[in-house]
Amino acid sequence: MLLHFFHLSLLSAIMNPHDTDVHTISPELPAMFDGMKLAAVATVLYILVRCLNLKSPTAPPDLIYQDTPLNRFLLKSCPQLTKEYIPPLLWGKSGHLQTALYGKLGRVSSPHPCGVRKFLPMQDGATSTFDLFEPLAEHRTGGDITMVICPGIGNHSEKHYIRTFVDYSQREGYRCAVLNHLGALPNIELTSPRMFTYGCTWEFSAMVGYIKKAYPQTQLIVIGFSLGGNIVCKFLGENRNNQERVLCSVSVCQGYSALRAQETFLQWDQCRRFYNFLMADNMKKIILSHRDSLFGGTSSKRIDADLSRLYTSTSIMQIDDNIMRKFHGHSSLKEYYEKESCVHYIHNVNVPLLLVNSADDPLVHDSLLTIPRTLAEKKQNVVFALTLHGGHLGFFEGAVLFPQPLTWMDKVIVGYANAMCQWDKQKPPCQKSATSSPPQAEGESLRV
Questions:
Q1: Which of 22, 67, 142, 311 is 20 to 30 A (C-alpha) from 220?
Q2: Residue numbers annotated as active site
Q3: What confidence tens digit (pLDDT) does each residue in 278-331 have?
Q4: pTM for the structure as a whole
Q5: 8-18: b or e for each residue (b if 16 or more CB lie within 10 Å)?
Q6: Nearest Cα to 249, choosing from 153, 379, 155?
Q7: Which Gene3D superfamilies does the record associate with it (predicted)?
């Protein structure tokens, strides 16, 4: 019956179009809906293009250096510094995605280099550890070369980006010694109420000293990533003797001055405040994992800290002020940042020094990059390379979507090291780095 009524109504509407109450859809409405869909799609595409920075060009690194025979040889021998750096097309031009992928993924396929873990007792009762990896091939110059490597904040030899770089370097003929920041390894307990800090060079110095004694003929290449870059530049600049037997040094993605950086870390520009929160949360986890060693007991050396303030800390600066500065007796956060930053020591470094940063690094504000620029303009031994893309320790390469296992960062460090080794081999014997033969170093070992 209902169906019959519908048929009659429809027939009536057709026969008497002017007398019916049935409303028809305007032909303009479908076109309007299609236009709205196109506008929505266009808006989404525009946002993606802006967020992914797809319109940004690719280019070779911006290089600042002085015209010297060594630097001319370097640029000829290390093509990574002069060729275009091409990140993955769809996401590689976003510094945030490069940084996020480094933080979560580390590297695409992480190898497992085999090494030996060394334990070095320190004068204050702490026990420093580093992992030693022997070369897997003869070096192209035939020499004995050791890379001494300082990872980023809270990092160690088991991090994927370190393992990838070590494996690549071993295959190029380098021995690698990787510092494990004091307290960073989850399965190694602290033996004193102290852990790593922003600029403490004690553990790195102990590792370098061990290598020099254990391998009296080896020459050193000093490498630091992020916080590690600050440590190695400070180490080389605070004592001239630390530069003996060092062929060259590389620092990647460091900020040079913690005092200047603290203001930028509180800004929301480039989501820097959010990254600050994430780093602080990670530091809290590391500190609290060693709670008993740092704050427990009745030792006069234990750290006097308000743990309730640690729990509620939302920035690295709050943790540094409440905890980290006290490990070395600094009276204020300003004093801690002043004395621990390499900006006050780096001008004393006279060995060849490559400083690498990325313009889209969300952790390092552009204002901090005046430090390496000025240094490279004044000192003949310094080359400053600034890439357009790469994020913080990302520097992934690839065609469209999937990155390659080795990054531009891995290749440029080894390429720079190869060039410096070749340059040193060509020098007259009287100009080569002096070597000495001290006695064999002592220390406990453990296979890793």
A1: 67
A2: 226, 361, 392
A3: 999 999 999 999 998 998 765 556 677 778 889 999 999 999 999 999 999 999
A4: 0.86
A5: eeeeeeeeeee
A6: 379
A7: alpha/beta hydrolase
Ordered domains of the chain (ranges, CATH): 57-257+341-429+443-447 (3.40.50.1820), 266-338 (no CATH)
Task: Output DSSP code: residue 76.
Answer: H
For residue 355, which of 374, 339, 340, 338 has the smallest C-alpha distance? Answer: 374
Read off the amino acid at residue 207: M
Taking the alpha carbons of 70, 72, 76, 80 in that order, is the dihedral positive or negative?
Answer: positive
Whole-angstrom Cα distance, residue 186 to residue 188? 6
Separation between Cα atoms, residue 310 and residue 314, nearest integer Å: 9
* Tokens matching residue 385: 């390379």
- List Cβ neighbours of 302 (8 Å cut-off, separation of 6 or more): 193, 294, 295, 296
**DSSP-assigned letters across all residues of 119-187:** EEE-TTS-EEEEEEE--SS--TTS--EEEEEE-STT--TTSHHHHHHHHHHHHTT-EEEEEE-TTTSTT
DSSP state of 271: G
145 in Cβ contact with 218 (< 8 Å): yes
